[in-house]
Amino acid sequence: MSTSTTGRSVGDSWRALRIPLLVTAVIVLAAFVLLAATAARTSGPLSPDSTDADGARALAALLKDHNVDVTGTDDLEDVVEPAAGKTLLIAPGGSLDVSDWRRIADAGWSHIVLIRPTGRALEALAPEVRLTGSSLPRRSREPGCDLPAAVRAGTATVGGPTYSAPDAATTCYGDGFNNILVRLELGERTVDVIGSRLTFTNEELADDGNAALALNLLGTHRDLVWYLPQWESDYSSSGDSGTPLIPPDVRYIAWALAFAVLVVAIWRGRRLGPVVAEQLPVIVHAAETTEGRARLYRRSRARDRAASALRESALGQLHKAHGIPRRADPSAVVATVAARTGRDPAMLYELLYGQPPLTDAALMSLSQELDVLTQEVRHP
Fold first, then answer.
1. 180-189, 236-245, 344-353: segment of lowest average pLDDT
2. How many angstroms separate the Cα of 128 from the Cα of each of 133, 159, 186, 194?
3. Which pLDDT tens digit goes with each residue over 165-182?
4. Gyration radius from the chain CA atoms
5. What's 326's DSSP letter?
């Protein structure tokens, strides 16, 4: 059987990796299935499919109950085709280029409803309507206009950015100059500009006359296209329009892969727990260790190292017994030990600091003499 460079067989490698690979494959497959299942659905704030507080599922259901066919989309190509006799609702969000807004304007929509539009959108779809730069606080307000859709709805809870409009436009829910709702008639096209986004959400649709106002504004035609803008179609610096170089769905796949890697890393990562006491298989006594080291010295003929070890041990006992500092000069050590033991200083110096023995017999003699000296220290 073939083996890898680390010595692990192919079978062992497969058994170790098959579960992480299976987990990763399942997560990635689940992400693809989720993307496929939601490909035809829209999501996010003011989405006709969202049941969140800032979604608009309730309004979409209300419109369908009144025979309005609601089609949600986030594809620009769905709203730039000829669409006479239809209503287009453009939710806030996204970032469309000026040319994209002009393509929408040229599609021939009979009724366009802009919710919190940007300056680009107003320039292309509602000329002469401008953002005032101020906003009105959310509260229940009277229409203050003769627009039938607003008059029938009565009071509504509105608030948000306000707009100024030309004299020919109809303005509602404002203070005379700052207006939440502006209706502009442009030949065969009607454009409604609405600054209050929350009015049509699931959270506030049931307040005041919000539901009636939304139904009156959006139910003017049998077909309603609910557009959630995404990104401008021009992603290249050359100005050529086309599909994005990186499709928006790629980010979902990237997040799925990152999540899969994180799960595998956590699963296979080192788990640090409390220290576990482990019984040693063999207890080695200190005497056996000393004997083993001595045999190694003898086998390698390391008499110098053996002699050095013996002298260091003896000096340690002498320093401790006579209170001699560890870094004391050899002459001071010899003088102190000679004064305490009555030995000849020259012989003590040779014993403690002399040359290493040349034979095993000389080494044994040195060991015995050092042992006698230390015995004298312990038993004066």
1. 236-245
2. 15, 22, 11, 15
3. 888 899 999 887 789 999
4. 46
5. T
54/198 Cα distance (integer angstroms): 7
* C-alpha to C-alpha distance for 7 and 2, rounded to whole angstroms: 9
Distance CA 171, CA 164 (A): 8
Q: Residue-wise over 231-240: b if at least 16 C-beta within 10 A, else e?
A: bbbbeeeeee
Place of tokens 């009144």: 66
Residues 6+ apart with CB under 8 A from 335: 345
Contact 85, 225 (CB under 8 A): no
Query: Which tokens belong to 133?
Result: 């730069």
Q: Which tokens is 368 given?
A: 């015995």
Angle at 160 between CA 157 and CA 161, to 5 degrees: 140
Length of the chain: 380
Residue 304 CB-density burial (10 A; 0-12 exposed, 13-18 middle, 19+ buried): middle
- Supply the DSSP string of 171-231, one letter for each residue: EEEESSSSEEEEEEEETTEEEEEE--SGGGSTTTTTSTTHHHHHHHHHTTSSEEEEE---B
**What are φ and ψ of residue 317, in 5° steps?**
-70, -40
Each residue's pLDDT tens digit, 277-336: 777 677 666 667 777 777 777 777 778 888 888 888 888 888 887 778 878 888 888 888
